[in-house]
Amino acid sequence: MRKWLLLCAAILLEVTATLSLRAALDQPAWFALVAVGYIGSFTALSFVLRLGIGIGIAYGIWGASGVALTAVLATVIFGDPLTATMGLGIALVIGGVLCVELGSQAAHAREEEAVS
Known about the structure:
Blueprint: H1 2-24, H2 31-50, H3 55-78, H4 84-115
């Protein structure tokens, strides 16, 4: 459970940093939050990896969630466009990560069967 909470923290910190980067274009003081967010995100992600989540899974979930949340929140906060094509792209990214996760679970199951 702890590793998933840390992964959520890494995602939220990365999204915060990215949105703050956009805000910093108009108000440079936001660069402080950009730095804190990215450093915190990578730190949390490193803890996730130490706790045993594979890099493909952790990075995939982190990346896909970050893309999706950033796109949606940029629309809400900054009025950026969110088109149907972009929505399809987000769905494909999330679907790809889901495929990687399911494939990883199947590989772990096969490894456990081979050891037994």
